[in-house]
């Protein structure tokens, strides 16, 4: 049964990815929560921003067949057009589209559905030393669901990882955080004004939560998405190195930007146009951070 938005323990996800190997140790099942308090201009998952299911239109797949016209409950859908004003994101046109040009991104899940889906991979988790990873969007934006799942997975002895942007009310998520075996914590910019310009919010709460996690002794890896022209200035890199080394005492991964999500930005009506950093520039950033005494881990694109 798909839960209603008002169900007490349930939430909106945009994917549950099995056999994940990039979101923590071993073979993992990654739960992608829908809804995020940030608006990173380079985001590779812009379909995660809204906390509700939403219509996505992938124009390159549209064949102009017109199947969407009769399916639309409000008579709005037209070939080669995306979401129009008045669309209720019902998904009827997506169901009717034979080419996948229209897709309903995200759906409501009950906690029981999520537990059952992840439970299918239990044997792979045990054999590989893997587990479950909470990602997004931002899992802490649905604190009741996150806490419920974290408590149940903890009871089952499942290794748990949280990937977080750090912008969340601490008191709503403290219990779930206390049950995590590892936290991947994003730090995108150390300057308050620049952070607000590129991401939509300031950085004070994010840095405060990073310090709280470090004080709790939860293993943490800092992830730094390297975006040319946004956060690659030496001043910002040195400030981040000092904060990570002296305050968090955590290792850091440099995550070079890759335009993996550009087509998804178009599908949901947003825009993103950033360049990939050159490999030499990525290595120079890593060397600068290492020179400041930071333990730098290797990583792939973000």
Protein described:
The chain is of the alpha/beta class. It has eleven helices and eleven strands. The protein has helices at about 65-70, 90-95, 110-120, 120-130, 145-155, 170-180, 190-200, 205-215, 235-250, 260-265, 280-290; strands spanning about 10-20, 30-35, 55, 100-105, 105-110, 130-135, 160-165, 180-185, 220-225, 250-255, 295. The strands form two sheets. Strands 5-1-2-6-7-8-9-10-11 form a nine-stranded mixed β-sheet. The protein has a two-stranded antiparallel ribbon with strand order 3-4. Helix 9 links the parallel strand 9 (about 220-225) and strand 10 (about 250-255). Helix 5 (about 145-155) packs parallel to helix 6 and helix 9 (about 235-250) packs across helix 11. The chain starts with 9 loop residues before the first strand and ends in a 5-residue tail after the last strand. The mean pLDDT is about 90.
